[in-house]
């Protein structure tokens, strides 16, 4: 038996299989044609036909016909059942060689409806997997772009907040410096002790104090005052003393 690779045919239970088997180059009209089950590399006859005969099985579910005009054998199987699943082939019997020659072979798989749906899904696994892979790639690209944009937005927001906080610190420092520089120095009256209001660091330069003398003092009477450093400890050794003398104003010629 000259073998061929069977073609896979899937059918639903209750469905129909129709197959056309063209003659081979050496096939003649006078040869008997067979519909066979493949058993151990040989033909297990199901039906046979000869020269335009149309033959049916006992249950009338299988029919074979030799179409000599079109040089092809047609086979029809109806009301398929799960137990019909098997490997079939059309063949012509060569009386000279005493052998069967395959015209066409199939592997028939008959399934119930829900099983067929599963197998049909499996048959399209490769295209669907390719589409799924492409879809996954596009989704990953979109998510990457979105995450990158969110990261850039977060960085820009952080930078803006940092600049705003830095400017606020600068403004606060400038206001404190202006408040310190605008403070007036203390004023002391005659006969009282005046306290200097100035920089907190007295070691950076001399300190000054303004005295408000309400009456004109006598030049012979010196005015004493002491000044305590604002930031110095309360220690007599840290006190500064001064003697203020008033010069007599010059007399005019009229006096």
From TrEMBL:
InterPro entries: Ig-like_dom (IPR007110), Ig-like_dom_sf (IPR036179), Ig-like_fold (IPR013783), Ig_sub (IPR003599), Ig_V-set (IPR013106), Immune_rcpt_domain (IPR052314). Pfam families: V-set. Residues 175-230 are annotated as: Disordered. Residues 175-186, 194-204 have a biased composition (Basic and acidic residues). Residues 13-107 form the Ig-like domain. It comes from the Eukaryota. This is CLM7 protein. It comes from Vidua chalybeata.
